[in-house]
Amino acid sequence: MSEQTVRDAMVPEPTTLGVHDSAQAAGRCFAENDEVRAVFVVEDDGTLVGVLTRKTLVRTVVAEGRDPREVKLREIAEPPVFTLDASLSLDEGFHALEERDLERVPVVESNRLVGVLSRAVVQRRLAEDEPPELDPDPGSLVL
Questions:
Q1: Dihedral over Cα of 30, 83, 118, 3: its sign
Q2: More confident: 143 or 31
């Protein structure tokens, strides 16, 4: 069996909007789905430009009294702190998440967003592949 890659465990097709979309469109994404934690902002060709969270939206648009219909996502998207390549081994991807204490990271291929890797998903995936721990004292009964 070949080694698993980040692509094998990533969540494909994360929530994306274009650089020319408005802050209002991003707000709708958050309002329509409570599970959306971030909106990824991409160029027309899928190149990742940045990430937008609810907190960023509130801080850069609402708190400043800007019109969300007029603010373009290119203006407010925060460049990703870190990305992973889809072809990276899953073990290496997990260690990168752990080292940087990140919960989710955009996954790219030739700078184009292809998915998101979640630490919780990787932990479950790696746990499934590990053999069960042996009982150090098989004669004892744990109640």
A1: positive
A2: 31
Regarding predicted confidence, which is higher, 136 or 105?
A: 105
Return the percentage of the chain with pLDDT > 90, whole number: 67
| Interatomic CA distance for residues 43 and 98, integer angstroms | 29
Which tokens belong to 12? 């494909």
Alpha-carbon distance of 60 to 5, in angstroms, equals 36
87-104: pLDDT as tens digits: 999 989 989 999 999 888
Residue among 3, 10, 5 nearest 104 (CA): 10
Q: For residues 99 and 94, give the distance between their C-alpha atoms in angstroms, rounded to a whole number.
A: 9
